[in-house]
């Protein structure tokens, strides 16, 4: 029998890894936040890891946007650089160094042996970046993952005499004889990390007292699980979840340590960074300095935030400086802020203008370019309000919006996330918004209005594919109801009418139609007449979505 060639990593796998890790951290962000008790019980480890991976993922997407088939080494370097730029918190900063360490080895080869060596380099470089490594943390989990993936550790596959095949059937650089299957190496690393995570309470007293595993280590296990899924196509079995109500109640507190967290990017040479490490180590704790090649991410907990920044100025050029006071990170917002605001993500300039006229602060979602959490946080800040209702208006933005809301809360802004899945639900929520009401009552009313609005959409299929309504061909008109394809048609107006009839079959009092700038002429009039003639006592309202808006959005209340 011919010997099976060992699988090799490629740029598409790295892209998938970033996307899967971001999705998984989005699902588990709150759970990881809830067990964050070390080094500071500020309940933000899951959020920080999410933001770090989000930045890595965006950097990889930028590479693919520039080049359809990017070089593998360029892709892994972009991932590491993006993580460095967006690293947040203690665990996020360490994760960025882990990814940097991996990228240094993977840039040389893409097979299982290189992956195992990459995990080892990642573990070593992360420990070197931490001034005083502590066992029972993400560092222990990373070390265990590397050890489990090492040759001869068991379960990681045997060497092969084959040559790994790169894109187009040619041998990939660095993928030489003796390589192991990357999926088996990834599975071994994940299994080792999970076992190490379960052991963290026995290594760190604060975890044992709280009855939890290390939050940073938990996040790393999630990232490694995404790697397994990216290289094998199968998600690994998850460990036991934190039982609801079993996790400790985490309150921001600075009594047990320094008052401030200081983070900044620094442009400096190695010699200056070595001096900076000594200076910051004397000022505080939780010191992590990651990076290289002239660009570093500095993280430290101190009582004198000014001195930490001044040390950076002496070492080089610090920028993107973030200072968080642990004791007041969730305190009331400044008095000069206004009372309440609504921030809404809209798919089209027409809708954005409409909602802005209604008083909302808007974020434009362009086709294929969903806003990142940083854009949503910036919009929340622009709203300049003590209380903010956030309307993502897209099911795919739920994790991004949740992370943005958590960031804003850390700045003292009270944020409520209404999980709107479509723009028409956001319009319905905004219609019942009353700033004079109590905040909780206003959020409940907006949530109820959004939930009572069914949403539909028309789109044109770009290629042949299987849908929940059958097989569609390129150019077919697809009618979606609540996110699923319900109708496949040939004509826009006919398909739209069919979708409307199905949505109204369960009842309704108001139909909202949002048409793109390039929608067929007369479409709005035809649909209004159809509703008037076939569904008595149902009103219709029409809005212009403007350029770049979806072909047709439908809401039924």
UniProtKB/TrEMBL annotation:
Name of the protein: Dihydroxyacetone kinase
Record keywords, A-Z: Kinase, Transferase
Organism: Streptomyces lavendofoliae
GO terms (BP aspect): glycerol metabolic process
Domain DhaL: 12-229
GO molecular function: glycerone kinase activity
Alphabetized Pfam families for the sequence: Dak2, FakA-like_C, FakA-like_M
InterPro entries named among the record's database cross-references: DegV_domain_contain (IPR050270), DhaL_dom (IPR004007), DhaL_dom_sf (IPR036117), FakA-like_C (IPR033470), FakA-like_M (IPR048394)
Source taxonomy: Bacteria, Bacillati, Actinomycetota, Actinomycetes, Kitasatosporales
Tagged with keyword Kinase: yes
Top-rank lineage group of the source organism: Bacteria
């Amino acid at each position: 029998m011919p010997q099976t060639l060992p699988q090799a990593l490629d740029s598409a796998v790295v892209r998938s890894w970033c996307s899967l890790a971001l999705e998984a951290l989005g699902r588990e962000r709150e759970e990881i936040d809830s067990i964050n008790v070390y080094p500071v019980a500020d309940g933000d480890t899951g959020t920080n890891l999410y933001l770090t991976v989000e930045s890595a993922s965006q950097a990889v997407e930028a590479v693919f946007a520039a080049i359809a088939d990017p070089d593998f080494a360029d892709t892994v370097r972009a991932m590491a650089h993006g993580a460095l730029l967006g690293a947040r918190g203690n665990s996020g900063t360490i994760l960025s160094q882990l990814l940097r360490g991996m990228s240094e080895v993977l840039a040389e080869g893409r097979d299982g042996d290189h992956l195992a060596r990459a995990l080892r380099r990642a573990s070593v470089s992360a420990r070197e970046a931490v001034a005083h490594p502590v066992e029972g943390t993400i560092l222990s989990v990373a070390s265990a993952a590397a050890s489990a993936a090492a040759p001869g550790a068991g379960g990681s596959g045997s060497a092969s005499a084959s040559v790994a095949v790169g894109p187009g059937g040619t041998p990939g650089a660095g993928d030489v004889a003796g390589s192991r299957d990357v999926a088996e190496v990834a599975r071994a690393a994940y299994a080792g990390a999970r076992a190490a995570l379960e052991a963290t309470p026995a290594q760190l007293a604060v975890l044992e007292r709280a009855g939890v595993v290390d939050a940073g280590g938990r996040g790393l296990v999630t990232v490694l699980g995404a790697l397994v899924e990216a290289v094998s196509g199968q998600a690994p079995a998850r460990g036991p979840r934190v039982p609801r109500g079993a996790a400790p109640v985490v309150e921001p507190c600075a009594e047990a340590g320094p008052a401030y967290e200081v983070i900044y990017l620094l442009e400096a040479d190695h010699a200056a960074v070595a001096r900076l490490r000594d200076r910051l180590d004397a000022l505080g704790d939780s010191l992590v300095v990651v990076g290289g090649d002239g660009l570093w991410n500095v993280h430290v907990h101190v009582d004198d935030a000014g001195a930490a920044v001044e040390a950076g100025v002496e070492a080089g050029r610090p920028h993107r400086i973030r200072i968080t006071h642990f004791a007041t990170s969730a305190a009331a917002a400044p008095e000069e802020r206004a009372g309440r605001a609504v921030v809404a993500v809209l798919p089209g300039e027409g809708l954005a203008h409409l909602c802005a006229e209604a008083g909302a602060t808007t974020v434009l979602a362009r086709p294929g370019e969903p806003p990142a959490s940083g854009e949503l946080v910036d919009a929340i800040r622009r709203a300049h309000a003590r209380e903010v209702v956030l309307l993502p208006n897209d099911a795919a933005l739920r994790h991004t919006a949740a992370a943005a809301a958590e960031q804003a809360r850390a700045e003292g802004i009270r944020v409520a996330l209404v999980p709107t899945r479509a723009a028409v639900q956001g319009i319905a929520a905004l219609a019942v918004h009353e700033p004079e009401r109590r905040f909780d009552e206003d959020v409940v009313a907006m949530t109820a209005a959004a939930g009572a609005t069914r949403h539909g959409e028309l789109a044109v299929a770009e290629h042949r594919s299987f849908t929940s309504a059958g097989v569609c061909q390129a150019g077919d008109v697809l009618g979606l109801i609540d996110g699923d394809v319900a109708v496949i048609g040939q004509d826009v107006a006919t398909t739209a009418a069919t979708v409307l009839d199905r949505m109204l079959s369960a009842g309704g009092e108001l139909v909202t139609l949002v048409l793109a700038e390039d929608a067929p002429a007369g479409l709005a009039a035809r649909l209004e007449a159809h509703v008037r003639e076939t569904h008595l006592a149902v009103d219709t309202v029409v809005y212009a979505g403007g350029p770049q808006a979806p072909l047709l959005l439908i809401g039924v209340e």
